Each structure stands twice: as structure tokens, then as C-alpha cells.
Amino acid sequence: MSTTPDITAEVEAATQRVRELSEQVAQQARKNGLAWLEGYERVLKNLLDLEEQAAKGTGAEWASTLATTHANFVRETSEVVFGAMRDQLKSGPRT
């Protein structure tokens, strides 16, 4: 007589391997997302600084005030948005 393979054990082992691989993929995606987010924040900060410097270079008070107001609005808004995104990426999946 031949023995039949224990299919249940094989399926459970395969399922466990898939779970482990899925978690590894999710962890790497979170790391990549955080790296992208931090890079985007740096680029945005540099662009806003450049906007303010360029406006100040015009010598027009109204242009400088407008650029500073705009830059501050974008900074404050993006802090909230980026903070929420960062929290989601750090917390991992919701189960």
C-alpha cells in the first residue's frame, strides 16, 4: 500500500510561507513609503524656501508677503498631511 501525502499539512505550510512573504513585502513597502515621503518633504521645503527668496529678491514688499503667506500655508498644511501619512506607514496594516 502506498501512503497518501498529508495534504492538510502541506497546505498549512504553504499558507504560512505566503503569510511570511506577504509581511516581508508589506514591511519593505512601508520602508520605501517612508523614504519617499521624507524625500518629498525635503524637496517641498527647498522649493518653498526658493519661492520666498525669489520674492524677496524682487524688492516688492507685496510679492514677498504673498510668497511668505503661501509658503507658510503649504508648510502647515503639508505638516498635517505628511504627519498622517507617516503615522499610517509606521503603524503598519490594520487587522
Account of the 3D structure:
This protein has 2 helices and no strands. The mean pLDDT is 91. 86% of the residues lie in helices and 0% in strands. It has one domain. The protein has 95 residues and is mainly α.
Binned strand content: under 5%
Main sheet summary? none
Instruction: Report the strand count.
Output: 0
Summarize the helix and strand pattern as letters: HH
Overall geometry comes to rod-shaped
Give a brief outline of the structure.
This protein is mainly alpha-helical and 95 residues long.
Describe this protein with a few key phrases.
about 85% helix
Secondary structure blueprint with pairings:
Elements: H1 7-57, H2 61-91
